[in-house]
Design a protein that fits this description.
Blueprint: E1 4-10, H1 18-31, E2 51-52, E3 70-81, E4 89-91, E5 98-100, E6 102-103, E7 106-110, H2 112-127, E8 134-136, E9 143-145, E10 150-151, E11 156-166, H3 173-177, H4 179-182, E12 188-194
Antiparallel strand pairs: 1-11, 1-12, 2-3, 3-11, 4-5, 4-10, 6-7, 8-9
């Protein structure tokens, strides 16, 4: 079995704006009846701060025949990931060169040599060390912070604000598209997975 999740990450929100923007989105979702206003223990590791599905949550998903779980809002420096497995590739934000991160003959196994600079940069990002987040491109030689690289299938996203929907069926594209305008036009990344 397992628990499924879909996360919408605001990759432009600052640490200072995250709580305010998170509260603004929750207020919208409550007003629309998509989630309940009162926090509860409806999500994995939510510490009683999840928001259960509301009476109109079906307007946010493709198939509303099954619902178990709810919304958890992450506020604070977070590396969001897709759960199980490893990212297959990452693309340089400068030259668009693609770096494979798994072994060619074993696509489920990470290529340790390719992964090494990204591991350190991810740790640097989690620690808030701006210099340690940079990774140099093997193709163009230019460095960029790890949160600016484009991860295949949006395996990773880095930000100070994320909205995780636990155990809901697939979110509607139109619903996901509503997040950016409500976040002041910020760029969002959607990822999902299973634990």
């Amino acid at each position: 079995m397992g628990d499924y999740f879909q996360t919408i990450v605001d990759v432009d929100a600052t640490a200072e704006d995250a709580a305010r923007l998170g509260a603004k989105v929750v207020a919208w979702l409550v007003a629309e009846g998509i989630v309940e206003a009162e926090p509860s223990n409806c999500v994995l590791d939510g510490d009683g701060r999840g928001h259960a599905a509301g009476p109109r949550y079906g307007t946010a998903v493709h198939d509303d025949t099954y619902e178990n779980g709810g919304l958890y809002v992450h506020v604070g420096r977070t590396m969001f990931d897709s759960g199980q497995g490893h990212p297959e590739a990452v693309t340089c934000p400068h030259c668009s060169a693609r770096t494979a991160l798994t072994l060619a003959d074993q696509p489920w196994e990470p290529d340790d040599e390719a992964w090494e600079p990204f591991r350190g940069a991810i740790q640097g990002w989690e620690d808030g060390d701006a210099e340690a987040t940079k990774v140099g491109c093997r193709s163009c030689g230019r460095a960029a912070p790890v949160d600016r690289w484009r991860w295949k299938d949006d395996f990773f996203a880095f930000g100070h604000l994320g909205f995780t929907f636990w155990n809901w069926t697939n979110l509607r594209d139109a619903f996901v598209a509503e997040f950016s305008p409500r976040l002041g036009g910020h760029r969002t990344v959607e990822l999902g997975g299973k634990l």
